């Protein structure tokens, strides 16, 4: 079983790390964090893709079972998960179990993703709860009925995912919900409020040395301007 966890990671925070660890432990699998070069639903990011990937590498340095997969940084255009999973499936072969990890807020928007129904042909989908976005069947029915219809008949316990290559859906239990968000972290940095306890020390030091997120007005293209496709 291989698990992939995509994000803007702008910047990575302890909530991301807790979720990646929870998936690693519950699914007994390596988790690859996949920074998006050009997140499809965001106009721009606040740090460029090289900076976001640097912070991510520092965040998981020395962590058992976590790694960074930079494949999306080398692909032009919007970083569609469908394209990433198509690549991963081609590499892994038809029978290898693959899973894509999302937070509950992403799950509630899944029907807006590029070729979203086909994601279930390529991988299992694993969701984790997030404060203010806690999902259950009732909330999905109300806010994302298409997603509920798609996951109906697919719900599995975490242990069962390794039995098939794709098509399952798991709502992963977390010991506690994680309050962190990159938006709030950036706001705190720009406002000069305490923020360092939300990221590993090495990440905080690099944010400081690169002077990132100091101004709420600075929005960069998602990728370095010298490196446009
Ligand atoms: N605290 C959290 N709890 C659960 N899921 C989370 C949490 N933070 C991020 N995620 C999930 O991780 C994935 C990547 O998140 P992303 O990099 O966009 O971070 P974010 O904190 O949501 O950023 P932003 O606030 O800028 O949207 C998404 O699927 C998101 O739902
Ligand atoms: O493929 C899509 O259409 C799509 C739409 C929105 C988000 N995603 C992916 O979901 C992950 C989290 O996105 P975001 O914007 O919450 O950081 C990241 O890997 C994105 O590439 C993917």
Automatic annotation (TrEMBL):
Gene of this entry: nadD
This protein's record includes keyword ATP-binding: yes
UniProt cross-references to SUPFAM superfamilies, sorted A to Z: Nucleotidylyl transferase
Pathway: Cofactor biosynthesis; NAD(+) biosynthesis; deamido-NAD(+) from nicotinate D-ribonucleotide: step 1/1
Name of the protein in question: Probable nicotinate-nucleotide adenylyltransferase
UniProt catalytic activity: nicotinate beta-D-ribonucleotide + ATP + H(+) = deamido-NAD(+) + diphosphate
Source organism per UniProt: Thermomonas fusca
Domain Cytidyltransferase-like: 4-188
Lineage of origin: Bacteria, Pseudomonadati, Pseudomonadota, Gammaproteobacteria, Lysobacterales
EC number: 2.7.7.18
Annotated Pfam families: CTP_transf_like
